[in-house]
Write a sequence for this structure.
């Protein structure tokens, strides 16, 4: 009898804690949604099926520190993976050689950050901290076909397009922004968009040109 | 004329037969594999090029926005970003993933109705075959190689070229100035479907034979826009003298798919454009002119020049094609400072696509010679009608039934007459893979 009473008390106590917790979480989620908006859109080019695009907000007021954890770019099967790497300014990237052959990482002229990590063998990791906004092309001097891109951003509001060219940038603070487009094959002029809390703004990129 | 007649005419005939010996017909299934598309995207029927096929060829074996359509991903010889490293790196390019090799086999059964031969029917199964390889090496270099073998006289022939596209593209525009080196000329002169690489009927066109212009080692500049294209080249001559042949061609196309392969009404990203009502259709008018000056030795002591000027027209409307070509030919002995008879060569052809796989055609061809006593068969008047049907059994297997009826040929029963000029009927099978 005493055991049963104890169990009942435990269940009641648990429910008393759980119900307000659920209410709190729901309310905070609603508040968060009301305080931010979305940017969604589509890139109208068949190229994005093979060559995904990065869509990002050029500048958002505030400071966005880099993540404490390093970003990892692997060199495996004679490929860089991932191929497109959007990161926050100040982020350190670990480049690991996961092949059984020697690799190298360097950036050609025109990259936002210029470096050459030298040649290194299997299992070795080399690091580099990206402190310049913009695109840095990653090449391997040992295997000229290998290529990847690091795009250093001021803020975390970006998206990579899917196979159909659709993209979604979520939780964007209200404001008016320049939306930029980056693709290894195409270029497009930036677009201005005003984000309103609780709403989704639609952006279409259809004025696309092939890069020279 | 008398002192050179026998030796020189033997020389002419030898050259003529050499020209006929290897049929460099071109259709390259390696591209079907590369894009995983049917042969009929580019040929209707092979080797005759469709509008898409013609633009694909002109564009150095690439489609507009080619990389979107390549299924057989090429092997990179360097990331594009290596262009920024130049001259401290090799300029990046790529090569085909699979060797872009194709085989084309031609065969026929031919029955001669007249002539002195006892064997009237011949099984040329096969008559000749070619190993073809073609493709791209990066964005701006394309290549072509043909090894052709002929069973009739065990002859073989190699054709090959390399083309760089877009010389000074910032100044002139894309594909307005391309340079090609190798065996060139044969493809650019006269109507594409009347010359051997893309001929419509199985038999050679008299027009093509009489022009006697084959591909030669040399260099060519060419270019094209939406409605125009040109080619001009300088090539090795068939003479021991220090002479080179040279040629020029220009054509315009109105309506249909432009030479650039981009439908003027569509965005550049459309890629493979063609008639929405059928790949073989291309409602358009094409007109062209060409000129060729060549040098050859009739025999070691007798060099001559030969000039060819021509014009042609092709009108496509729905399932009907009307084709016409005219050429004027004049040969002159340099050694003896004498003119040879002049020749006027023309043909008219009607092609009708009863079905996409069954095409009827009929052609009339004529050579008339002026200033000649018609005492030599190479300078005699000749005319023939060539009716036939083409059956495209599969996209890459073709059967042709055609006949040749001479309405004018005074040498038709001569013992030493070229057998290809007898009245005949032939059934041919061609396949490529």
């Amino acid at each position: 009898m005493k055991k049963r009473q104890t169990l009942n008390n435990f269940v009641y106590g648990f429910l008393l804690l759980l119900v307000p917790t659920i209410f709190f979480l729901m309310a905070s989620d609603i508040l968060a949604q009301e305080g931010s908006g979305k940017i969604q859109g589509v890139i109208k080019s068949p190229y994005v099926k093979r060559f995904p695009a990065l869509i990002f907000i050029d500048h958002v007021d505030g400071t966005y520190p880099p993540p404490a954890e390093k970003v990892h770019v692997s060199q495996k099967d004679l490929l860089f993976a991932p191929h497109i790497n959007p990161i926050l300014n100040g982020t350190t990237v670990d480049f690991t050689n996961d092949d059984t052959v020697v690799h190298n990482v360097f950036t050609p002229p025109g990259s936002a950050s210029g470096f050459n990590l030298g040649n290194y063998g299997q299992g070795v990791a080399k690091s580099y901290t990206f402190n310049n906004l913009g695109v840095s092309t990653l090449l391997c001097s040992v295997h000229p076909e290998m290529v990847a891109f690091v795009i250093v951003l001021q803020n975390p509001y970006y998206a990579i397009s899917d196979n159909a060219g659709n993209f979604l940038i979520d939780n964007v603070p209200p404001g008016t922004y320049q939306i930029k487009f980056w693709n290894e094959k195409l270029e497009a002029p930036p677009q201005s968009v005003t984000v309103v809390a609780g709403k989704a703004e639609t952006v279409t990129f259809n004025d696309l040109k092939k890069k020279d | 004329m008398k002192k050179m007649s026998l030796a020189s005419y033997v020389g002419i005939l030898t050259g003529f037969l050499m020209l006929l010996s290897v049929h460099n017909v071109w259709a390259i299934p390696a591209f079907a594999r590369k894009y995983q598309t049917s042969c009929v995207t580019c040929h209707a029927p092979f080797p005759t090029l469709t509008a898409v096929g013609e633009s694909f060829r002109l564009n150095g074996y690439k489609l507009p926005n080619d990389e979107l359509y390549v299924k057989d991903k090429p092997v990179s010889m360097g990331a594009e970003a290596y262009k920024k490293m130049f001259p401290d790196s090799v300029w990046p390019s790529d090569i085909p993933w699979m060797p872009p090799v194709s085989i084309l086999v031609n065969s026929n059964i031919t029955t001669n109705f007249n002539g002195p031969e006892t064997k009237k029917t011949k099984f040329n199964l096969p008559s000749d075959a070619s190993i073809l390889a073609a493709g791209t090496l990066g964005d701006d270099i394309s290549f072509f190689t043909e090894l052709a073998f002929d069973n009739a006289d065990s002859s073989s022939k190699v054709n090959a070229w390399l083309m760089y596209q877009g010389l000074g593209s910032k100044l002139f525009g894309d594909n307005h100035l391309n340079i090609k080196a190798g065996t060139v000329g044969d493809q650019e002169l006269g109507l594409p479907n009347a010359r051997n690489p893309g001929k419509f009927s199985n038999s050679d066109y008299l027009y093509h034979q009489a022009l006697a212009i084959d591909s030669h080692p040399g260099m060519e500049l060419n270019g094209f826009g939406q409605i125009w294209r040109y080619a001009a080249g300088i090539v090795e001559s068939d003479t021991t003298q220090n002479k080179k042949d040279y040629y020029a061609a220009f054509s315009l196309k109105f309506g249909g798919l432009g030479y650039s392969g981009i439908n003027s009404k569509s965005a550049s990203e459309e890629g493979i454009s063609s008639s929405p009502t059928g790949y073989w259709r291309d409602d358009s008018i094409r007109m062209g002119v060409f000129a060729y000056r060549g040098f050859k030795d009739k025999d070691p002591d007798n060099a001559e020049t030969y000039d060819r000027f021509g014009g042609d027209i092709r009108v496509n409307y729905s399932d009907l094609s009307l084709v016409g070509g005219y050429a004027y030919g004049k040969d002159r002995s340099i050694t003896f400072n004498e003119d040879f008879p002049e020749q006027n060569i023309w043909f008219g052809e009607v092609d009708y696509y009863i079905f996409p796989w069954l095409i009827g055609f009929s052609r009339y061809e004529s050579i008339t010679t002026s200033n000649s006593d018609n005492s030599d068969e190479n300078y005699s008047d000749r005319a023939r009608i060539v009716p036939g049907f083409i059956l495209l059994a599969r996209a890459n297997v073709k059967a042709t039934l055609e006949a040749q009826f001479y309405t004018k040929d005074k040498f038709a029963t001569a013992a030493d007459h070229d057998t290809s000029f007898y009245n005949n009927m032939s059934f041919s099978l061609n396949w490529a893979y």
About this structure: The mean pLDDT of chain B is 85. The two ends of chain B are 50 Å apart (CA to CA). Helices of chain B lie at 5-21, 30-35, 51-58, 169-172, 206-211. Chain B touches chain A at residues 65, 67-68, 75-82, 84-85, 89-90, 92, 269, 271 (CB under 8 Å).
